[in-house]
Amino acid sequence: MNLNELSILSLYSAMGVYALAFIAFSIDLARRSSAVGAVQADELSSPEARGAAEAASGGTTTLTRISTRIANDAATPYGRSASLRVGVSLTVLAWALHLAADVLRGLAAGRVPWANMYEFAMTGTLLIVTVFLIVLTRADLRFLGTFVTGLVLILLGIAALRFYVEVAPLPPALQSVWLVIHVFVASLGTGFFALGFALSAVQLLQFRRESLVAEARATRLRFVATLPSSATLENLAYRVNIIGFILWTFTLMAGSIWAEKAWGRYWGWDTKEVWTFIIWTIYAGYIHARATRGWRGSRSAWLAIIGFSAVLFNFGIVNVFFKGLHAYSGL
Amino acid sequence: MATLSRPSDHYDSRPARPGADVTQPRLGTSGWLRWFWRQLTSMRTALFLLLLLAIAAVPGSLVPQRSSDPNGVTQYFANNPDLAPALDTIQAFDVYSSAWFSAIYLLLFVSLIGCVIPRTKHHLQALRATPPKTPARLARLAGFTTRDAPAGTDPAAAIDSARGLLKESGYRVARFDTEREASVSAERGYLRETGNLVFHSALVGILITVGFGSGFGFSGQRVLVEGQTFVNSLLAYDSFNPGRFFDDAGLDPYKLKLDDFTVDYETENLKAFGQPLDFTADVTVTPRGEDPEPAAVKVNAPLRTGGTDVYLLGNGYAPTITVKDPAGKVVFTDSIPFLPQDANLTSLGVVKVPDGLKKQVGMIGFFYPTQAEAQSGAYFSSFPDLEYPLLTLNVYAGDLGLDEGVPTSVYSLDTDKMDALATRTTTVKPLELKPGETQQLPGGLGSVTFEEANPGAKKGDFSGSVLRFASFDIHHDPTQGWVLLFAVLVLLGLLTSLFVPRRRVWVKAVRQDDGSVRLEYAGLARGDDPALEAAVAALADRHSARLTSPASAPLAPAPEQT
Ligand code: HEM
């Protein structure tokens, strides 16, 4: 068995373990829902408790308060959960296998493992999980586990089935330190954007729940009650997204420097350049929206969601189907 | 609430004068202008224009653009004869220089300038202002915490010490003392707004340098066969695109000779067999009035010389073909760049012999560096290097169409007014030549020779038998360095504006009724500031440590010093 075959074996194992982690995280969400159900049953019997819960989820949170600790402003506090811990442990295990797969692929090729679609996907998803695990040490975002493992599974599945290519040497146009820098930073930025996307999406769910609760109407997706308030989620999403934005700004510049070296012009509105620019502009819009009256909250969250959709589009559709100088999908 | 993530003294967040519109129902022209300007420079408009710009950039990735893909545009016109002209009227093939795209970004940048100037003024004022008075009740503010001062501490002295501590940490400070209490008000993070202004100004800088600066440069293309020399002058370019303000007197006439062009191909990894690994154009550069010096141009490693940047963009084979008349007199000899058609360098080229023969002769040639034959009998190349080279020539005689004064491409042959003498459909099949071989042209017109470029080679070794060509892009852009400088400023501005926290901190010493002194600490976030409370707590700890530690506490004289 050669290094590349080992890498493939390791990757498939990682996918198996991610799938188990996904199941554990899903069980956790289900548990959250039933926990909320129990609390709501209690509330029906004690109207005061219900009033208190509503007050807690109302818009009283201030920026200064949330910055202390997150997760303690959930409408329905949610205790320890075995499945959550199992989910995280499995994710760490899968991440280690994933890392091994990536490193082995790099060793097999004798270069960085991000020079074609298969490798971008493998390294990009590895970075998504890495960012997730690092952020977990600073904030309890374990409730995003289903999203992260699910997204990574889908992307890896597509990569393994549709984008797989054999190890090949780098074409001269890619032999540059800028490949190492530019593509790596872009993938890292994508990791942050992915997390920001998930936070913004949950923020929208949470906001909807909060509005329903405020109008004293029934809510669906009960587990949302165990998650931080929409204001907290918005702030978290913002922090994650601006890191992504800075990395993306750097990606854009590094790409221009490389384009100047390889093609003789730093900017030529090539399709891939156009999409990198579009993504940058959407996120600049997102940052502005956060500072514009009437655009904070759900509207800015939608911009973050559109931004990440554009990132996925840029990776999955533009690379494969659009014509341009960046014909490096290896397909 | 709406201005949480920005300083509240921010320009845009200045509250609108209430009732301004009501008391002034009729706006004059200047009133309208002012209203329009306020709208244009509002945050909402900036946001709207940014999103509009993102949307407007999309079509250019869906439809081929003249600037980056002119052949694609031609193809698009051929494929969509009805749609294409309609799209053309709305400049869909020139999106990024179109009137509508330009309008959006110019408006955005006018808005940006209109935004940055007042904010800069405002910021300069803020830099000189003193921090605001300490609030009466700190308990409601972020990170509020208290400490008991060591017995015998004097409030004013304690605050002096806090003031020193804050100044050391980069805060600007102001003292506010009353009878019962002393306090210091401190603010830091002006750099945040500075960074933001640098960021936005640098964006304007990029736009201006790109907009005007590109007019001073040029780009040109030149194909060189091994052995050929190019002199950097207008006429020597195959194509030349000057910027609007370019003056060709500025061309530095250095000489560039292509000595050798080498390509390494993958031969070990069967899955990537024949893939090029490395291209190197070995050249000799002779700056005017200086000695020649060797240099190399590679993909990703342009040659910077004579104020120009020389890029290696393409390469291929340039078979040397000689045509003689029936008497053996040479009427044509040249190395002709053949355009590669696929990864294994099956190449297509055209030979035109206008004079010296009975009729004008045109030939369409296919060159296969490693010729192989498909089941159908068609030839193809199975490897890009010279393993088993073969040249086939389709021969036509008649009018080359050169005399009508219409410029014709050297890469194409119009056979409409010519007779096919040797093609796949005529009785005489296309001529087939290996390097060094000669064949008679049909109809007794003469002979054609495929010259061996390396006559001394052993029999069967074709490695140097055909010359290669390299195509170079030669650019001059005097503004590139400026763009880079502004880009770096953009990045630095962004980093400072997003990571430097702007915050206010207060320390208050209050004399209690029992004579002891209570120290109060609190902060105020001015923007998204997750670390504020930790910073206040750390300040409180360091301050109490300083008050109790003998070495640095001037208030309670340490016993051993007395
Ligand atoms: C070329 C278009 C523009 C781009 C790409 C852009 C981009 C950005 C970015 C990336 C930020 C966040 C980083 C920072 O704070 O420095 C930002 C912040 C800001 N921009 Fe712009 N901007 C543009 C135009 C404008 C215009 C026209 C205005 C004025 C109306 C404006 C006002 C602001 C303000 C006030 C902030 C601070 C927001 C905050 O503190 O969160 N920008 N801009």
UniProtKB/TrEMBL annotation, chain A:
It is a multi-pass membrane protein. The keyword Membrane applies. InterPro entries: Cyt_c_assembly, Cyt_c_biogenesis_CcsA, Cyt_c_biogenesis_CcsA/CcmC. Keywords: Cytochrome c-type biogenesis, Membrane, Transmembrane, Transmembrane helix. Residues 114-326 form the Cytochrome c assembly protein domain. One of its GO terms (molecular function) is heme binding. NCBIfam families: cytochr_II_ccsB (TIGR03144). This is Cytochrome c-type biogenesis protein CcsB. It comes from Cryobacterium psychrotolerans. The lineage of its organism: Bacteria, Bacillati, Actinomycetota, Actinomycetes, Micrococcales.
From TrEMBL, chain B:
The keyword Oxidoreductase does not apply. It is found in: Membrane. Pfam families: ResB. It is a multi-pass membrane protein. The chain crosses the membrane at residues 46-63, 99-118, 197-218, 481-501. The keyword Transmembrane applies. GO terms for cellular component: membrane. GO terms for biological process: cytochrome complex assembly. Residues 1-23 are annotated as: Disordered. Keywords: Cytochrome c-type biogenesis, Membrane, Transmembrane, Transmembrane helix. Its main location: membrane. PANTHER family: CYTOCHROME C BIOGENESIS PROTEIN CCS1, CHLOROPLASTIC (PTHR31566:SF0). This is Cytochrome c biogenesis protein. It comes from Cryobacterium psychrotolerans. The lineage of its organism: Bacteria, Bacillati, Actinomycetota, Actinomycetes, Micrococcales.
